[in-house]
Write a structure and sequence with these properties.
about 160 residues, Ferritin, 5 helices
């Protein structure tokens, strides 16, 4: 179905991020199991809970706007999840894998930050005022997750990986 209006684009982007979040709820437990750094595993587990709340918030956005999500698969998230799987298969468990998992997770966070930023801008333009707080909350969580991953990398995970091997 062609996108002809800004609302069509909003629906497309919302459907895309919904699919992305659903895929992420399946991927995060695998990342947590693959991590050897306990703080990293805990961060993945914590973000899983957050992601489940983000899916609920998307449901609230749908309800508040009256739009209907399209059934689609977020190909970008599918690719990012696949990259994460490849990393887990290619690198043995340990500090180097932890560093690679952080890198893979940050790619995901940056994708989500872009998606929610776009939805906020489109929602403002469409005067969907009631959803701004919901989208802002999720965007804030995604940025915080990215920051947490940076802290883990710079706080020892990358140093441990540098000493491995």
């Amino acid at each position: 179905m062609p996108l002809k209006t800004l609302e069509d684009l909003f629906i497309h982007e919302l459907s895309d991020i919904y699919s992305a979040e659903k895929q992420l709820t399946k991927a995060l437990p695998k990342l947590a199991r693959a991590a050897t750094n306990p703080e990293l595993a805990a961060a993945f587990e914590s973000h899983l809970e957050e992601t489940q709340h983000q899916v609920e918030r998307i449901d609230q956005v749908v309800e508040a706007t009256g739009v209907k999500l399209k059934r689609m698969k977020c190909l970008a998230m599918e690719g990012l999840v696949e990259e994460g799987k490849e990393v887990m298969e290619a690198i043995e468990k340990g500090p180097v894998l932890d560093a690679a998992l952080i890198a893979a997770a940050q790619k995901v966070e940056h994708y989500e930050i872009a998606g929610y930023g776009t939805l906020l801008a489109l929602g403002r333009q469409l005067k969907f005022d009631r959803i701004e707080t919901l989208l802002q909350e999720t965007l804030k969580e995604e940025k915080a997750a990215d920051q947490k991953l940076t802290q883990l990398a710079e706080g020892g995970a990358n140093q441990a990986a540098a000493g491995a091997g």
